[in-house]
Write a sequence for this structure.
């Protein structure tokens, strides 16, 4: 589904990604771990098409299509979803209105009519129940005055509504208490099918107890320095990232 | 394509005036220039009684001695008042009994504006009195209103048919000598609307008037007078569009609202006059005086969505004379390219327990300048007067300006006055967030702007709110799609 070949990217003059190779197939869950500043969030932004980052080499391919000239909104229409580490506030725009606009814009891009209000309501009801979200929450302005946990839950609610092919969760666990973490993780697990894929970006092994990855990759200084199965996370928890940093230097 | 400031700016620049077309209708137009003879001729043309002619002449004499005001935060070449024609009317027939008699080209103009009379007639709940180049050419729903004793007609007709009402109220809220433009308007007003709601009557429909400037070089001087008698209620809508023109067109309207004891008037405006092109050439000068007076327990709400005009100078105000009266002002002002707006309100608290609310949302883009200017004045006898003001500004790009000039004068120590203000900018992060959810930049800006303006949009009557939202999008988006 997703194939990243020798991806280099920089912001202004600073090179952040220095040759990433990654293949994600439908039905898989991948975790990307690594210390601060290793390029995890940059990788997420580059896949989503944020133009602050300049791709200097390599490519991102989604379903055989090179995404190089594809706008962020078209990537979204093709099924790429990014759960933001720091979701932005949009005052005066309710969660419901925002989702309605997002869904109908995607439908428009596919040549479909707006979703009938009845279906939209049904969808909202289903997905808010799935994530244990109070309906009143949906009429509040997007992320305005939301707690950290509410913001992250709202991101996963949007993911549920948009049913993406490839979901990238950027530090979704940060700022969540253990109960919220469980709700969010359960939501993600329920949305998982054999046709979609999830990339989980995280610092800690904790989230991976709830969302169990098929593969784990460790990012260091813009490169994937180690890949493995879920056991790798435990090893990292035990030995810390320094172990891999040293190993990378030795290589 | 991701959003950058540069791209946004480019998009905004390429926006063209959607309603920019010109309808060629034979007009009965006076030669340029203004003197006593012209004032008398206008009055005569409109078959006015002598007291009206005298009133106009008095205004003209006052105006001659006045200077054009310069305190507003706007710069423009002052109009040459002798180079303007002060009367123009669609002339084929002075009056129409039915739509069939209306000039087909005029009807076509309305259709292109999306306000086909046919549709309007069928739209239950909306009566339309259309003013095109000064003379009312169609009035609908008059019968239904008549049954309730409501008078809704052109001001010229009211002067002929209901002189006692007009004479009693005209100029009582905005006197001839009030200011330069009001004096000019009083001397030469061509037409406008008149509305009277009798005691205890709740007007069953939204009253609406569409104004339109159509004749090259013709200033438009509308005069509106709304009188709500004791315990009555009326909601009045005013919407404007104008064809594109090279030279600046002057518009100096006067609106007077009178809410007697326990009455309520809601006055909503959507203003979309030609703002000039992206180089700042052309566009309407909109110098308007709007003011209402509230007697005991009365309430006046002004709601305005201002997206058009090259220069706007407008302060819909409330004189809260009666005890317990309420004044409200809800405003969205959008400026783009080289537009300049200096707009706001005055809340004059005279009675006891009077309350006022001011919500102003300014959106500036391009190289435009957007100013809020407001006065909250509490008189010495206005015990327990309360005011809440909120002024928010949204900036797009780095070349526009937002300014706030709040004035507060309290002469009674029991007054409570609050003022809140914010300034924000549409962020690239907000745009990218929307993009990532599949919403393109253009739509994202519309969404953010609508969210910003929501508190005011919510105050508009339903059918107007939809139109206003569309206008905000047109005013700020690129020409894509």
């Amino acid at each position: 589904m997703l194939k990243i070949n020798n991806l280099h990217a920089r912001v202004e003059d600073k090179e952040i990604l220095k040759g990433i190779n990654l293949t994600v197939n439908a039905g898989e869950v991948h975790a990307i771990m690594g210390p601060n500043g290793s390029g995890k969030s940059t990788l997420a932004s580059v896949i989503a098409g944020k133009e602050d980052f300049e791709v200097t080499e390599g490519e991102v391919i989604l379903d055989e299509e090179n995404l190089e000239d594809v706008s962020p909104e078209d990537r979204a229409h093709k099924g790429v979803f990014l759960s933001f580490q720091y979701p932005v506030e949009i005052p005066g725009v309710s969660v419901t209105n925002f989702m309605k606009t997002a869904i109908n814009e995607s439908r428009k891009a596919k040549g479909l009519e707006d979703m009938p209000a009845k279906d939209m309501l049904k969808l909202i009801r289903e997905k808010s129940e799935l994530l244990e979200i109070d309906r009143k929450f949906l009429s509040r302005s997007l992320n305005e005055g939301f707690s950290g946990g509410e913001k992250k839950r709202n991101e996963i609610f949007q993911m549920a509504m948009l049913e993406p092919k490839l979901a990238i969760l950027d530090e979704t666990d940060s700022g969540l208490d253990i109960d919220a973490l469980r709700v969010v993780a359960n939501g993600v697990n329920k949305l998982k099918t054999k046709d979609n894929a999830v990339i989980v970006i995280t610092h800690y092994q904790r989230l991976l107890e709830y969302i169990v990855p098929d593969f784990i990759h460790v990012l260091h200084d813009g490169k994937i320095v180690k890949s493995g199965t879920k056991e790798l996370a435990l090893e990292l928890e035990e030995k810390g990232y320094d172990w891999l940093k040293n190993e990378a230097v030795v290589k | 394509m991701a959003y950058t400031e540069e791209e946004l700016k480019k998009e905004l620049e390429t926006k063209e005036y959607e309603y920019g077309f010109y309808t060629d209708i034979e007009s009965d137009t006076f030669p340029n220039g203004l003197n006593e003879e012209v004032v008398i001729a206008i009055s005569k043309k409109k078959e006015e009684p002598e007291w009206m002619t005298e009133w106009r002449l008095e205004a003209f004499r006052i105006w001659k001695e006045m200077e054009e005001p310069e305190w507003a935060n706007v710069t423009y070449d002052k109009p040459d008042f002798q180079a303007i024609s002060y009367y123009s009317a669609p002339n084929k027939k002075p009056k129409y009994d039915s739509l069939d008699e209306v000039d087909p080209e005029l009807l076509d103009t309305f259709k292109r504006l999306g306000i086909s009379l046919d549709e309007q007639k069928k739209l239950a709940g909306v009566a339309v009195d259309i003013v095109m180049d000064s003379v009312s050419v169609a009035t609908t729903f008059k019968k239904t209103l008549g049954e309730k004793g409501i008078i809704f007609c052109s001001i010229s007709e009211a002067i002929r048919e209901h002189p006692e009402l007009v004479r009693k109220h005209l100029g009582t809220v905005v006197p001839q000598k009030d200011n330069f433009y009001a004096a000019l308007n009083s001397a030469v007003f061509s037409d406008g609307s008149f509305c009277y709601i009798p005691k205890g009557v709740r007007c069953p429909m939204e009253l609406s008037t569409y104004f339109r400037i159509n004749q090259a070089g013709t200033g438009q001087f509308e005069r509106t007078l709304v009188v709500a008698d004791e315990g009555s209620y009326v909601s009045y809508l005013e919407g404007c569009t104008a064809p594109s023109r090279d030279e600046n067109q002057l518009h100096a309207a006067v609106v007077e609202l009178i809410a007697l004891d326990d009455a309520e008037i809601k006055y909503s405006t959507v203003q979309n006059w030609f703002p000039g092109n992206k180089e700042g050439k052309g566009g309407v000068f909109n110098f308007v005086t709007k003011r209402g007076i509230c007697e005991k327990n009365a309430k006046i709400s002004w709601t305005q969505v201002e997206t058009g005009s090259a220069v706007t100078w407008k302060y819909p105000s409330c004189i809260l004379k009666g005890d317990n009266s309420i004044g409200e002002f809800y405003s969205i002002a959008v400026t783009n390219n080289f537009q300049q707006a200096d707009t706001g309100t005055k809340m004059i608290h005279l009675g006891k327990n009077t309350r006022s609310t001011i919500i102003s949302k300014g959106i500036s883009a391009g190289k435009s300048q957007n100013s809020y200017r407001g006065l909250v004045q509490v008189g010495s006898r206005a015990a327990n007067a309360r005011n809440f003001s909120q002024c928010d500004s949204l900036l797009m790009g780095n070349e526009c300006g937002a300014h706030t000039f709040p004035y507060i004068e309290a002469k009674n120590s029991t007054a409570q006055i609050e003022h809140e203000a914010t300034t924000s900018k549409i962020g690239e992060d907000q745009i990218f967030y929307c993009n990532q959810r599949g919403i393109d930049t253009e739509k994202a800006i519309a969404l953010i702007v609508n969210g910003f303006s929501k508190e005011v949009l919510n105050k508009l009557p339903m059918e107007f709110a939809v139109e206003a939202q569309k206008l905000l999008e047109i005013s700020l988006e690129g020409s894509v799609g």
Summary: The first helix of chain A runs from residue 40 to 48. The mean pLDDT of chain A is 91.
